[in-house]
Amino acid sequence: MYESLGYTVAASFSEGHKKAPWGVALGVGVEPFCDLPSRMLGACITGKGSLFPASANYFLPSAKIVGIMSNLDENDLKYPLGRYTAPATISPEQRGLWIEEMAKLPANLSKAVAGLSNNQLDTPYRPGGWTVRQVVHHLPDSHMQSYTRFRLALTENSPVIKPYEEGAWAELSDAKTAAVAPSLALIDGLHTRFVLLLNSMTNADFAKTFRHPELGERRLDWTLGLYAWHCLHHVAHITNLRSRQGW
Ligand code: NI
Questions:
Q1: Whose CB among 97, 186, 205, 236 lies 3.0–4.6 Å from 80's, allowing a Cys bridge?
Q2: pTM of the full predicted structure?
């Protein structure tokens, strides 16, 4: 849907609507980071590159342009670190670095959301994306699955694991509305256990596998790298949003 978001204009409405910082993404389509009134949204859909900062004042007469970031596209916002790619061979040193990332997630995630208001937590990290709150709740949802898969793989012979619908999980009421503190606590406890487990694993353990019904056989060392990437990936969604919004 979004080939390019063109410009992101951080604007603040001073008249007609509640006073709040708005992020308005302009490009092929346009979608507000917050609940921009639909008539304003309609006025903004002018096609890629046709709505420039100067004319934004025309379309958004009550908006005060406070900052512009150019050259953002969907992949930059959705995959701030790029997608996960594992090295051809995974050394014990590489695994050690990934385990360190897993150990750092509880502190990194707490820091990423520190001081955010409820409105800020309910802001999508990108147009059409999950809110910060959904991202926070997604992490224990996802990593509890991963922790279970590691334990299954370590105690059975390449077991078939149960996939889950992460998008649908993120739409469940608790994932959309709960305070972030319980998920920060879940991640803290879960990663304490997870890192203890990872640090206990031998080379032979890391070569063990599970089978994903659609994706096939996965080694545990490859999977460790995926989840280390996943920690950084989602924390970057939040820290990048904060930096774009000046929060
Ligand atoms: Ni994820």
A1: 236
A2: 0.72
Distance of CA 221 to the CA centre of its chain: 23
Closest residue by Cα to residue 122 from 114, 113, 133:
133
C-alpha 231 to ligand 1 mean position (Å): 8
CA of 198 to the centre of ligand 1 (A): 20
Q: What residues pair up with 217 in beta bridges, in sequence order? A: 211
**Ligand 1 midpoint to CA 136 (Å):** 10
> Ligand 1: distance of its center to the CA of 138 in Å?
7
How many A from CA of 99 to the centre of ligand 1?
A: 18
| pLDDT tens-digit readout, 105-162 | 999 999 999 999 999 999 999 999 999 999 999 999 999 999 999 999 999 999 999 9
CB neighbours of 20 closer than 8 A, spacing ≥ 6? 12, 13, 34, 119
Do 93 and 34 meet the contact criterion of CB atoms below 8 Å apart? no
Q: What's the residue count for the chain?
A: 247
Cα(230) to centroid(ligand 1), Å: 6
C-alpha 151 to ligand 1 mean position (Å): 20
Burial group, residue 168, by CB count within 10 angstroms (0-12, 13-18, 19+): exposed
Distance 81 CA to ligand 1 centre (A): 13
Nearest-10 crossing angle of helices 220-245, 92-113: 30
